[in-house]
Amino acid sequence: MRVIAGSARRMRLVTPQGLDTRPTQDIIKETLFNMIQFDLPGSVFVDICAGSGQMGIEAISRGARKAYFIEKGREAVSCIQKNLHTVKFEDQAVVLRQDVLSALRHIHEKQVDFIYMDPPYGTELALDTLEALGRCSFVTEDTVIMLETSLDSDISGLEDFGLEICREKDYRTNRHLFIRKIREIL
Question: Rounded distance, CA 81 to CA 156, Å?
Fold first, then answer.
């Protein structure tokens, strides 16, 4: 696994051993970042269920000002820290080793621009996290939440959280959902 573009381009990253994490394939990562590349410079990026930290590291490499990495697995957090050291991004990163819902309370930003989520498939964590994000003050109408999920995941009821899907991108085995807060009409 490697950083695709930006200041850390081509740098190799380590990943946790075993099946507890699913690193996003380079081609899918490249497609996703090409979709948001012009809005990344100077942004704040949150990588939820970060695994190796590759998504947040890619965001910093492409110009994000700061990235939060939320991961509770000990080995995964160790990989994130090693990867941040390798690419020399420690000063732009905050690693939160705790469960997602607790970690969200430790993000003290006026606004977060991008939130990337890749929770374990087949669990309620995606919906629980989206519900919590709908209540977070740092999630504004301009925040883009990107959820990686399986093709058969049911992500219904977002309106109850004040959120809506604004774009979908399907791949062979999974999909990215782009979610925003519902804009209030005056």
Answer: 35
